[in-house]
Design brief:
Blueprint (H helix, E strand, L loop, with lengths): L5 H25 L3 H11 L4 E3 L2 E2 L5 H13 L1 H11 L11 H16 L4 H15 L5 H16 L5
Antiparallel strand pairs: 1-2
Helix pairs in contact: 1-2, 1-3, 1-5, 2-3, 3-5, 4-5, 4-7, 5-6, 5-7, 6-7
Length: 157
């Protein structure tokens, strides 16, 4: 087996974060268990060809699994952190489900992950921008995640 370059590993971690957001979104809309969703993603998304000659990115399986599992395990704590980061009139239940999935995956990484806080924020802002390329959601996600990160890992600031 060939050793992956640092750039390949970074791309795989980025793909894992995107897949985790998609998986959390799918879980919320399908009422499937996280084990079922993880298995589906590993079997049908990671590195699969979805159009002639166009492949889905390979993701970091361990990071993907960790983010989804921890987002489920810590959901109430993460949602409370998110609520505190949002203005009072916008409880997490009123947030777009895609953004809710972004906050949950990022919150899981803040609580259990090892990546630097700024990397996590930048990565999930990029994920949000991939779903909302024309909107202000990237700036909104950046502000909420910065607040959440300061609560979860104050020593990083």
């Amino acid at each position: 087996m060939t050793e992956l370059s640092g750039n390949q590993k970074r791309k795989m971690r980025s793909a894992a974060r995107l897949y985790a957001v998609q998986a959390l979104f799918q879980m919320e809309h399908s009422s499937q268990s996280y084990e079922t969703i993880i298995r589906e993603f590993l079997d049908f998304r990671f590195g699969q060809e979805y159009e002639e000659g166009i492949e889905m990115a390979d993701g970091d399986i361990d990071l993907f699994r960790q983010l989804v599992e921890q987002a489920v395990n810590w959901q109430s704590k993460i949602d409370q952190m998110t609520d505190r980061a949002l203005v009072a009139k916008w409880p997490i239940a009123r947030i777009d489900p895609t953004l809710r999935a972004v906050f949950r995956a990022a919150g899981a990484e803040f609580l259990e992950g090892e990546a630097p806080v700024k990397v996590v924020i930048n990565e999930f802002v990029d994920v949000a921008r991939s779903f909302y390329p024309e909107g202000k959601e990237g700036s909104f996600v950046n502000a909420v995640l910065d607040h959440m990160a300061r609560e979860a890992k104050p020593e990083a600031f």
